[in-house]
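Dig into my protein:

:::
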Amino acid sequence: MTRASLDKQPSEVASMFDDVAAKYDLTNDVLSLGQARVWRKAVARAVDARPGERVLDLAAGTGTSSLPYLDAGAQVVPCDFSLGMLREGKRRHPRLPLTAGDATKLPFADDTFDAVTISFGLRNVQDHGTALAEMLRVTRPGGRVVICEFSHPTWAPFRTVYTEYLMRALPPVATAVSSNPEAYVYLAESIRAWPDQPGLAARLREAGWTRVAWRNLTGGVVALHRGFKP
């Protein structure tokens, strides 16, 4: 089974997601104890797509996260670098214009989108700064970015319980429900290595985003960051 290392070589990460594509959404629902659906709804509300707007949904996987934007009347482009995920998405959602692309070299013109969003994908990109700059490039002036990513629980006792769950409980649960449990060992390790909420906010500002803010979901297990292009 394929498992990416924490240096996040693109070929390793893409291959890992190819392996888990068929059961990816189901596994996420189980491992998040049902919170994954709550988080997706929170992202859709934060993006607040309007009819006629153009939305780029990065790390879209099978396209499940893109459906709310389509239903809102926006023109959504789901983009992912895992061809296995895209094939599974096309089978499930043939109406979506699924697109292959690397977050560090986006195949879109400058100032194309009203909103760019990425959920649980920035952590898997090898060069976060380049990806954030690319998102800025393809967003029109005044447009917005919404990033949903695992973060650091704000209450210390809960943070300890959460860390124990990641490193002890998550791998055996993943073994029971996933086609590639090793991928979820990588998941746990990559979450632990990810910067906290102020750290990610600082990276957004360094990339050129303004009015950067965040709010915590599920006690800081996940954080929603938002910024605007000047």
Remarks:
- The two ends are 44 Å apart (CA to CA).
